[in-house]
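Journal club prep, notes for RB
We'll compare a predicted complex against what the paper describes. Inputs for the iron/sulfur cluster case:
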Amino acid sequence: MGGYELEEERILSWLKSRRATRVLIQAPDGIKPYLRDLCEVLAAAGIEAIVSGSHAWGGCDVAVREAVLVGADAVVHIGHHGPVRFRPPGNLLFIEGRAGVSIHGVVEIAAEKLVEKGVENVALLTTIQHLHELRHAKSLLSEHGINVFLARSSKPYMREGLITGCDVEAAKALESKVEAFLVVSGGVFHALGVGLITRKTVFAADPYTNRVLDIERNVRRVIAVRLNHLADALDAREALIVASTKPGQFSATRIRRVKAFLSSRGINCKVAVFGDLDRGVLEDLGSFDVYVNAACPRLAVDDYHIFPGPVINPGELRYLDEGLENYDPASALQW
Ligand code: SF4
Protein backbone atom coordinates (compact mmCIF):
# COMPACT_ATOMS: atom_id res chain seq x y z
CA MET A 1 0.00 0.00 0.00
CA GLY A 2 1.30 3.49 -0.82
CA GLY A 3 -0.08 6.95 -0.32
CA TYR A 4 -0.99 8.57 2.96
CA GLU A 5 -3.78 8.17 5.47
CA LEU A 6 -5.63 11.49 5.37
CA GLU A 7 -8.31 10.64 7.96
CA GLU A 8 -11.11 12.07 5.84
CA GLU A 9 -13.86 11.10 8.31
CA ARG A 10 -12.05 12.77 11.20
CA ILE A 11 -11.51 15.94 9.19
CA LEU A 12 -15.13 15.98 8.09
CA SER A 13 -16.55 15.54 11.56
CA TRP A 14 -14.18 18.19 13.01
CA LEU A 15 -15.23 20.67 10.31
CA LYS A 16 -18.91 19.87 10.86
CA SER A 17 -18.51 20.37 14.62
CA ARG A 18 -17.16 23.84 13.85
CA ARG A 19 -19.90 24.50 11.26
CA ALA A 20 -17.12 25.38 8.82
CA THR A 21 -18.14 26.18 5.27
CA ARG A 22 -14.72 26.91 3.80
CA VAL A 23 -11.44 25.24 4.78
CA LEU A 24 -7.83 25.80 3.76
CA ILE A 25 -6.03 22.47 3.27
CA GLN A 26 -2.26 22.56 3.60
CA ALA A 27 0.21 19.73 3.00
CA PRO A 28 3.88 19.21 2.10
CA ASP A 29 4.59 18.88 -1.63
CA GLY A 30 4.91 15.06 -1.39
CA ILE A 31 1.36 14.74 -0.01
CA LYS A 32 -0.30 17.34 -2.27
CA PRO A 33 -1.00 14.81 -5.09
CA TYR A 34 -3.23 12.83 -2.67
CA LEU A 35 -5.55 15.68 -1.69
CA ARG A 36 -8.12 15.41 -4.51
CA ASP A 37 -10.29 12.72 -2.90
CA LEU A 38 -10.34 14.63 0.38
CA CYS A 39 -11.49 17.79 -1.41
CA GLU A 40 -14.26 15.83 -3.13
CA VAL A 41 -15.45 14.29 0.15
CA LEU A 42 -15.61 17.76 1.69
CA ALA A 43 -17.36 19.25 -1.35
CA ALA A 44 -19.99 16.48 -1.17
CA ALA A 45 -20.64 17.56 2.42
CA GLY A 46 -21.08 21.19 1.34
CA ILE A 47 -17.67 22.38 2.56
CA GLU A 48 -15.54 24.34 0.14
CA ALA A 49 -11.94 23.12 0.26
CA ILE A 50 -9.18 25.44 -0.90
CA VAL A 51 -5.75 23.85 -1.26
CA SER A 52 -2.77 25.96 -0.31
CA GLY A 53 -0.28 25.89 -3.17
CA SER A 54 2.47 27.15 -0.87
CA HIS A 55 5.13 24.84 0.48
CA ALA A 56 4.52 23.41 3.94
CA TRP A 57 7.95 22.63 5.34
CA GLY A 58 7.07 21.85 8.93
CA GLY A 59 4.77 22.40 11.89
CA CYS A 60 6.34 25.88 12.03
CA ASP A 61 4.89 26.68 8.62
CA VAL A 62 1.12 26.87 9.00
CA ALA A 63 -0.72 29.08 6.52
CA VAL A 64 -2.74 30.99 9.09
CA ARG A 65 -2.47 34.29 7.21
CA GLU A 66 -3.39 32.64 3.89
CA ALA A 67 -6.49 31.21 5.59
CA VAL A 68 -7.59 34.69 6.68
CA LEU A 69 -6.97 36.02 3.19
CA VAL A 70 -9.18 33.41 1.50
CA GLY A 71 -11.85 33.71 4.18
CA ALA A 72 -11.47 30.13 5.45
CA ASP A 73 -13.18 29.25 8.75
CA ALA A 74 -10.61 26.56 9.47
CA VAL A 75 -7.18 25.22 8.49
CA VAL A 76 -6.32 21.54 8.11
CA HIS A 77 -2.56 21.05 8.08
CA ILE A 78 -1.52 17.58 6.93
CA GLY A 79 1.87 15.91 7.28
CA HIS A 80 3.32 17.30 10.51
CA HIS A 81 2.88 16.37 14.15
CA GLY A 82 1.71 19.71 15.55
CA PRO A 83 2.61 23.37 15.95
CA VAL A 84 6.29 24.21 16.29
CA ARG A 85 7.25 27.33 18.27
CA PHE A 86 3.90 29.13 17.95
CA ARG A 87 0.58 29.05 19.73
CA PRO A 88 -1.94 27.34 17.43
CA PRO A 89 -5.27 29.08 16.80
CA GLY A 90 -8.40 27.12 17.75
CA ASN A 91 -9.45 26.67 14.11
CA LEU A 92 -6.38 24.58 13.19
CA LEU A 93 -6.35 20.78 12.91
CA PHE A 94 -3.16 18.76 12.39
CA ILE A 95 -3.42 15.45 10.54
CA GLU A 96 -0.33 13.24 10.69
CA GLY A 97 -0.47 11.95 7.12
CA ARG A 98 0.62 8.41 8.05
CA ALA A 99 2.50 6.78 5.21
CA GLY A 100 0.94 3.66 3.67
CA VAL A 101 4.38 2.17 2.96
CA SER A 102 5.43 -0.57 5.41
CA ILE A 103 8.67 -0.18 7.36
CA HIS A 104 8.93 -3.95 7.94
CA GLY A 105 11.36 -4.73 5.11
CA VAL A 106 13.78 -1.88 5.75
CA VAL A 107 13.87 -2.51 9.51
CA GLU A 108 14.72 -6.18 8.84
CA ILE A 109 17.59 -5.04 6.60
CA ALA A 110 18.69 -2.54 9.27
CA ALA A 111 18.59 -5.21 11.99
CA GLU A 112 20.89 -7.47 9.98
CA LYS A 113 23.27 -4.57 9.39
CA LEU A 114 23.31 -3.63 13.08
CA VAL A 115 24.02 -7.23 14.12
CA GLU A 116 26.78 -7.46 11.50
CA LYS A 117 28.37 -4.27 12.94
CA GLY A 118 28.18 -5.66 16.48
CA VAL A 119 25.66 -3.02 17.65
CA GLU A 120 23.88 -4.28 20.78
CA ASN A 121 22.10 -1.09 21.83
CA VAL A 122 20.35 1.18 19.36
CA ALA A 123 18.22 4.31 19.66
CA LEU A 124 15.20 4.16 17.37
CA LEU A 125 13.80 7.37 15.90
CA THR A 126 11.35 8.22 13.19
CA THR A 127 9.18 10.92 11.64
CA ILE A 128 5.47 11.48 12.07
CA GLN A 129 4.72 9.57 8.81
CA HIS A 130 6.00 6.30 10.33
CA LEU A 131 5.49 6.85 14.07
CA HIS A 132 2.48 4.51 14.13
CA GLU A 133 4.92 1.69 13.24
CA LEU A 134 7.45 2.49 15.98
CA ARG A 135 6.41 -0.40 18.26
CA HIS A 136 6.49 -2.81 15.34
CA ALA A 137 10.00 -1.66 14.42
CA LYS A 138 11.10 -2.02 18.03
CA SER A 139 9.89 -5.62 18.28
CA LEU A 140 11.50 -6.53 14.94
CA LEU A 141 14.86 -5.24 16.20
CA SER A 142 14.39 -7.00 19.55
CA GLU A 143 13.82 -10.29 17.73
CA HIS A 144 17.39 -9.89 16.43
CA GLY A 145 18.69 -9.55 20.00
CA ILE A 146 19.16 -5.76 19.78
CA ASN A 147 18.27 -3.60 22.79
CA VAL A 148 16.11 -0.74 21.57
CA PHE A 149 15.96 2.61 23.37
CA LEU A 150 13.26 5.24 22.92
CA ALA A 151 13.06 8.80 24.20
CA ARG A 152 11.03 11.93 23.60
CA SER A 153 11.76 15.59 23.16
CA SER A 154 10.62 17.91 25.94
CA LYS A 155 8.97 20.23 23.40
CA PRO A 156 5.16 20.45 23.28
CA TYR A 157 3.32 18.03 20.95
CA MET A 158 6.40 15.80 20.49
CA ARG A 159 5.96 12.08 21.14
CA GLU A 160 8.18 9.15 22.00
CA GLY A 161 10.57 8.29 19.19
CA LEU A 162 9.62 11.35 17.14
CA ILE A 163 12.13 13.75 15.60
CA THR A 164 11.76 16.67 13.20
CA GLY A 165 14.32 18.49 11.08
CA CYS A 166 15.22 20.81 13.96
CA ASP A 167 14.14 18.83 17.04
CA VAL A 168 16.46 15.91 17.67
CA GLU A 169 16.35 16.19 21.46
CA ALA A 170 15.14 12.58 21.71
CA ALA A 171 18.42 11.44 20.13
CA LYS A 172 20.58 13.57 22.43
CA ALA A 173 18.88 12.03 25.47
CA LEU A 174 20.01 8.53 24.43
CA GLU A 175 23.55 9.25 23.29
CA SER A 176 25.26 7.72 26.33
CA LYS A 177 23.14 4.55 26.24
CA VAL A 178 23.64 3.33 22.68
CA GLU A 179 26.33 2.53 20.12
CA ALA A 180 24.22 3.64 17.17
CA PHE A 181 21.06 5.43 16.05
CA LEU A 182 18.54 4.09 13.60
CA VAL A 183 16.37 6.70 11.90
CA VAL A 184 13.44 5.36 9.87
CA SER A 185 12.36 7.98 7.33
CA GLY A 186 12.46 8.86 3.65
CA GLY A 187 15.90 10.13 2.53
CA VAL A 188 18.64 11.23 4.90
CA PHE A 189 17.32 14.66 5.97
CA HIS A 190 16.15 13.57 9.43
CA ALA A 191 19.08 11.21 10.04
CA LEU A 192 21.44 14.07 9.20
CA GLY A 193 19.98 16.15 12.04
CA VAL A 194 20.74 13.28 14.43
CA GLY A 195 24.24 12.96 12.95
CA LEU A 196 24.96 16.62 13.71
CA ILE A 197 24.20 16.38 17.41
CA THR A 198 25.86 13.04 18.19
CA ARG A 199 29.27 11.50 17.67
CA LYS A 200 27.76 8.02 17.31
CA THR A 201 27.04 6.04 14.13
CA VAL A 202 23.72 6.96 12.52
CA PHE A 203 21.91 4.70 10.07
CA ALA A 204 19.17 6.10 7.83
CA ALA A 205 16.59 3.42 6.97
CA ASP A 206 14.45 4.54 4.04
CA PRO A 207 11.19 2.53 3.75
CA TYR A 208 10.51 3.97 0.26
CA THR A 209 13.74 2.56 -1.23
CA ASN A 210 14.47 -0.22 1.32
CA ARG A 211 18.00 1.15 1.67
CA VAL A 212 19.93 1.45 4.92
CA LEU A 213 22.78 3.93 4.86
CA ASP A 214 25.52 4.83 7.34
CA ILE A 215 25.42 8.63 6.97
CA GLU A 216 28.90 9.39 8.34
CA ARG A 217 30.10 10.84 5.01
CA ASN A 218 27.02 13.05 4.72
CA VAL A 219 27.66 14.42 8.21
CA ARG A 220 31.33 15.06 7.49
CA ARG A 221 30.41 16.89 4.29
CA VAL A 222 27.99 19.16 6.19
CA ILE A 223 30.59 19.92 8.87
CA ALA A 224 33.15 20.80 6.18
CA VAL A 225 30.68 23.21 4.56
CA ARG A 226 29.76 24.77 7.90
CA LEU A 227 33.45 25.35 8.76
CA ASN A 228 34.05 26.79 5.31
CA HIS A 229 31.21 29.28 5.66
CA LEU A 230 32.26 30.24 9.19
CA ALA A 231 35.85 30.78 8.07
CA ASP A 232 34.65 33.06 5.26
CA ALA A 233 32.49 34.97 7.78
CA LEU A 234 35.32 35.73 10.20
CA ASP A 235 36.25 39.06 8.55
CA ALA A 236 32.71 40.10 7.59
CA ARG A 237 31.85 43.82 7.73
CA GLU A 238 28.36 43.75 6.14
CA ALA A 239 25.71 41.22 7.10
CA LEU A 240 22.16 40.46 6.07
CA ILE A 241 19.94 38.88 8.70
CA VAL A 242 17.45 36.63 6.91
CA ALA A 243 14.15 36.23 8.75
CA SER A 244 11.01 34.29 7.91
CA THR A 245 7.33 35.19 7.97
CA LYS A 246 6.40 31.60 8.89
CA PRO A 247 4.69 31.70 12.30
CA GLY A 248 7.04 29.23 14.02
CA GLN A 249 10.19 30.66 12.47
CA PHE A 250 9.86 34.40 13.06
CA SER A 251 11.28 35.62 16.34
CA ALA A 252 11.84 39.32 17.00
CA THR A 253 13.93 38.37 20.05
CA ARG A 254 16.26 36.24 17.96
CA ILE A 255 16.68 39.00 15.40
CA ARG A 256 17.45 41.52 18.17
CA ARG A 257 20.01 39.14 19.70
CA VAL A 258 21.72 38.57 16.35
CA LYS A 259 21.78 42.32 15.63
CA ALA A 260 23.30 43.06 19.04
CA PHE A 261 26.00 40.44 18.52
CA LEU A 262 26.89 41.69 15.05
CA SER A 263 26.94 45.32 16.18
CA SER A 264 29.23 44.43 19.09
CA ARG A 265 31.71 43.12 16.48
CA GLY A 266 31.38 46.30 14.39
CA ILE A 267 29.45 44.50 11.64
CA ASN A 268 26.81 46.57 9.82
CA CYS A 269 23.62 44.64 9.40
CA LYS A 270 20.32 44.85 7.59
CA VAL A 271 17.28 42.63 8.03
CA ALA A 272 15.15 41.11 5.27
CA VAL A 273 12.08 38.96 5.75
CA PHE A 274 10.89 36.23 3.40
CA GLY A 275 8.10 33.71 2.96
CA ASP A 276 10.08 31.13 1.03
CA LEU A 277 13.70 32.03 0.42
CA ASP A 278 14.76 32.79 -3.10
CA ARG A 279 18.35 33.27 -4.27
CA GLY A 280 17.32 35.76 -6.95
CA VAL A 281 15.63 38.01 -4.39
CA LEU A 282 18.63 37.71 -2.07
CA GLU A 283 20.89 38.77 -4.95
CA ASP A 284 18.62 41.73 -5.71
CA LEU A 285 19.22 42.98 -2.17
CA GLY A 286 22.89 43.59 -2.98
CA SER A 287 26.06 41.97 -1.82
CA PHE A 288 26.84 41.06 1.80
CA ASP A 289 29.91 39.46 3.39
CA VAL A 290 27.76 37.08 5.39
CA TYR A 291 24.12 36.01 5.72
CA VAL A 292 22.83 35.18 9.18
CA ASN A 293 19.94 32.80 8.84
CA ALA A 294 17.33 33.56 11.50
CA ALA A 295 14.75 31.34 9.73
CA CYS A 296 14.64 27.51 9.64
CA PRO A 297 18.13 26.36 10.72
CA ARG A 298 18.12 23.60 8.10
CA LEU A 299 18.33 26.22 5.34
CA ALA A 300 21.99 26.82 6.22
CA VAL A 301 22.65 23.09 6.56
CA ASP A 302 20.86 21.64 3.52
CA ASP A 303 20.07 24.61 1.26
CA TYR A 304 23.10 26.87 1.75
CA HIS A 305 23.38 27.26 -2.05
CA ILE A 306 20.30 29.54 -1.89
CA PHE A 307 22.47 32.16 -0.19
CA PRO A 308 24.75 34.18 -2.48
CA GLY A 309 27.53 34.16 0.16
CA PRO A 310 28.56 32.43 3.39
CA VAL A 311 25.63 31.72 5.68
CA ILE A 312 25.73 31.01 9.38
CA ASN A 313 23.06 30.22 11.92
CA PRO A 314 22.50 32.19 15.15
CA GLY A 315 23.83 29.25 17.21
CA GLU A 316 27.11 29.47 15.30
CA LEU A 317 27.74 33.20 15.81
CA ARG A 318 29.87 32.59 18.87
CA TYR A 319 32.57 31.00 16.72
CA LEU A 320 33.22 34.42 15.19
CA ASP A 321 34.60 35.29 18.66
CA GLU A 322 35.89 31.91 19.81
CA GLY A 323 37.48 30.66 16.58
CA LEU A 324 36.69 27.36 14.91
CA GLU A 325 38.93 24.91 16.82
CA ASN A 326 36.11 23.66 19.05
CA TYR A 327 33.28 23.83 16.50
CA ASP A 328 30.32 21.69 17.59
CA PRO A 329 27.99 20.86 14.68
CA ALA A 330 25.05 20.73 17.11
CA SER A 331 25.26 24.54 17.21
CA ALA A 332 24.00 24.60 13.60
CA LEU A 333 20.61 23.45 14.89
CA GLN A 334 20.41 25.78 17.89
CA TRP A 335 17.87 28.60 17.76
S1 SF4 B 1 12.09 25.16 11.46
FE1 SF4 B 1 12.67 23.95 9.66
S2 SF4 B 1 13.27 21.96 10.44
FE2 SF4 B 1 12.13 22.99 12.06
S3 SF4 B 1 10.02 22.31 11.82
FE3 SF4 B 1 10.24 24.20 10.64
S4 SF4 B 1 10.77 23.57 8.55
FE4 SF4 B 1 11.12 21.80 9.91
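Talking point for the session: The radius of gyration is 21 Å.
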